[in-house]
UniProtKB/TrEMBL annotation:
Identification of the protein by name: Tryptophan synthase subunit beta
Alphabetical UniProt keywords: Membrane, Transmembrane, Transmembrane helix
Keyword Membrane carried by entry: yes
Positions of transmembrane segments: 39-58, 64-84
Length: 108
């Protein structure tokens, strides 16, 4: 595994740690899914989460499912890691900017 690949794996792991910090109840299921040998289970779950994120307008499903499904899929498909890791980071940054703007607007 080259330096670039190690960097991409660390980036994906950081995103999982962020999700676990945001929703501590997800820590145990995500840790189990990330374990070696779970690829046969992880890929169908990732596809289900991606589809659930696409159909976020339906009850019970939500947009939160899309990034989680993409992160799980990136664990098994190494060529997706740089793209998915970068996209999730950009999404988090844009979300933080939007949240600051929204709070500032509400405060005035």
């Amino acid at each position: 595994m080259g330096d670039e690949e190690k960097r991409n794996v660390r980036r994906i792991e950081r995103q999982f740690r962020w999700i676990e910090a945001l929703a501590p109840a997800m820590r145990a299921p995500l840790s189990a899914l990330r374990a070696r040998g779970w690829g046969i289970v992880r890929v169908p779950i990732a596809i289900f989460l991606i589809l659930g994120g696409v159909f976020a307008f339906l009850p019970v499903l939500g947009l939160w499912m899309l990034p989680l499904g993409l992160l799980l899929l990136a664990l098994d498909l190494p060529f997706l890691r740089p793209w998915i890791g970068g996209a999730i980071i950009r999404l988090r940054r844009r979300g933080a900017i939007w949240l600051r703007w929204w709070r500032r607007k509400r405060a005035t």
